[in-house]
Every structure is written in C-alpha cells, then in structure tokens.
Prior knowledge:
alpha/beta; TIM Barrel; 8-stranded parallel barrel; 10 helices; globular
Amino acid sequence: xxxxxxxxxxxxxxxxxxxxxxxxxxxxxxxxxxxxxxxxxxxxxxxxxxxxxxxxxxxxxxxxxxxxxxxxxxxxxxxxxxxxxxxxxxxxxxxxxxxxxxxxxxxxxxxxxxxxxxxxxxxxxxxxxxxxxxxxxxxxxxxxxxxxxxxxxxxxxxxxxxxxxxxxxxxxxxxxxxxxxxxxxxxxxxxxxxxxxxxxxxxxxxxxxxxxxxxxxxxxxxxxxxxxxxxxxxxxxxxxxxxxxxxxxxxxxxxxxxxxxxxxxxxxxxxxxxxxxxx
Length: 279
C-alpha cells in the first residue's frame, strides 16, 4: 500500500462517517502489533508518538522504524508526531518522513494558540504533511506527569480557529482526559454536536483509553474521525510481558517480544473493530 498523510485518512473517514484509529507506540513490538491488526482487517490506521515520550523512545530510533513499517504495510498508514510544541522536534520528525504533526497549543491563550498552530501548519505543509490542532484542554498528559485540568472546547471559536490556522483536523475537549480514568467520564456530547456543526473540519478525540464502546461509537456518529489510543496499549503490552515472565520454564527475550507484539495486536484489533462497528 502506501504511506499517506493523516489529513488524507481523517478527511476520508469524515466524509464517510467513519473513524481512523490512532495508536501511540513506543517500541518495535507496538509498531508491529498495530500494523498487523490493520493489515488483517484491511482498515487504515495512524501510528504516532508523543513528544513527551521521546525520552523513553528516541525519535532517531522510533521515527525511521515507524515510517518504514508504514511504507511496507499492506494497508494505508499515516505516521504522526503527536502532542508536539517544539517546532525543531517537529522538523526532525518530518525529515524522517512523518506524514502528520499535532501542534499542542491547548494551554496557550486563544490567539497564541492560533499563531503557534499556524507556524506548525506552514512547516508541515512544506514537507507535504498535514497538521492537527487542539482547542480546549484535554485533562492529564501523555506521560502521566502533569494535569492542567479540563476545559471544554468553545464551539463558537472552533470555526475561527480552523479557518485561521488551516489545520486538517481539530482535537476537541469534551470531558475526555489522557491516562487512566479513576471513574468513567461523562462526555459532553451536546458540546461535541455543536462543535461538529460549526468547525467545518474532521474532529479528533484524545484520551480514548477507558471509554466505553458506546461512547466511542456515539462520538463517531457526532463527527469524531480520529481517536487516539495510548494508555490501553501500553498497559496491555506491559501485562503481556509480565504474564510471560511469571510463567514457568525458561524465558527468552525473543519470546517476551513475541508476547508483547501479540498484546499490542489484540488491543489494536479490538479498538479498530469498535471504532468501525465491526463484530
């Protein structure tokens, strides 16, 4: 197949009333497991890595592997730089061949967010890549080390933000949060419906791990065309490694790696099916 932009996949999903799963990865096993699930179901996906996690999974190692995995996959895959504020890091990712970037100016005042996102769009466009922006404040963080609270996206500002930045898709805050939910969140679907009516762009839901299948499918019906899954994948891969090491007999790195890949595959398979209403 081919390496495609996030904008292509999300735009197509939006037009068809569907959703592209976006899996955050941090190792070879996670890349292989996610791609295997996508190939089996013949449904395009996005693989991505967040700036905060590069201290654990360096971009110079992960980037080429992610891009090459996507190029050789038997299904369309986009490679995205997730939650990035550093344009230097963004540029490095784009030079490795990433086909999308997500500029996170959500903690900035509205006008500053527009300025920063516009710069990211200009940079990504020069590489033929697309850009995702964020308006509102999703709780938690990708590494679980910070939380600026939750601030729902203002539907009345969504269209202005999209038009003035030129983004391909918009990440929204409707009560969702990164990381583990201590209790099931109550998502503001009424706000999502208003954003969908006004934004004029495909919408993105971050903090998907832990939401119910019904929440996912209702969100897709209201314009969510990309859903990020990170925590659920990292937890599943860790569990598979722990279960393997707790078993009897001799243990090898290669068998542990196989177990981790299988864990990622199973988690990706489940979410792809849920997002696309496949039994």
